[in-house]
Specification:
Layout: H1 5-13, H2 19-34, H3 40-68, H4 89-114, H5 116-131, H6 145-152, H7 155-166, H8 171-176, H9 178-194, H10 196-202, H11 207-211, H12 213-237, H13 250-253, H14 255-263, H15 269-292
Amino acid sequence: MKQSNLNIWIQAARPKTLWASVAPVVIGSAMAFESGGLHIMSALSALLGAVLIQIGTNFANDYFDYYTGADSTDRLGPTRVVQAGLVQSTTMKAAFIAVFALAVVPGAYLIWRAGLPLFVIGVLSILCGILYTAGPYPLGYVGLGELFVIIFFGPVAVGGTYYVQTLQISVPVIISGLAPGLFSVAILTVNNLRDVKSDHRAGKKTLAVRFGITFSKIEYLLSIAIACLIPLILVLNDDKHLYSLLASVVLLAAIPSIKTVFTSEGIILNRVLESTGKMLLLYSLIFSIGWIL
């Protein structure tokens, strides 16, 4: 059955992964609220900017993976719309440029409010979003994907959200950002684990390709386990915010996904990809509420 244009573009945006950009903003805003510095306009601008940059990155990935031949008809992941012939490559190129341009609108407000640090964060976020699959040495093709993800979907996103509202930063805020960053690494790990065979054929040197399937399974487990220990680290450093410890119970919810990662392969990992995104959202909500209480 022919899909509508709207459904095709929603599919290209990969909505099930967008919690990776929403969760850090939720956490950063909750911490700003607790410190008495919540600024609604800045929080909403940070949310809009983060989501647009991730969508722009997803569109750019769709385009460049097709352009380089990394996507093929035997891919196991969700449909890439350019490779599937649902969107012309030139249209997708125009789309990711347009989305990144739209991200400049909330970004301009945040720069006006918070100054040069936000300009640097915005430029680097967009640049890395493009270079993830573009350029002579794409980040995602040389095994640097996890590093990009943990930094920009973790401390940078949480810290940036907190900073634009309070105009200050603190060590606990940066540490708290490691949790969503690690959950996002887990999402990427599942993606790379699922595609390890096709990535190897395409010459993509992800960590799964470089170090093997067992490495990636352990990487997934440790990413979630360490993320769920972040509240404990924060409480041990400062005995406030005890209710934030409740976020650690997400580790129990992760057990079925961890089991699937260790016992299955291929297309079934798409379900783990979705469930890990939901775990990230659940963690961010529980941690945020607990931090405020």
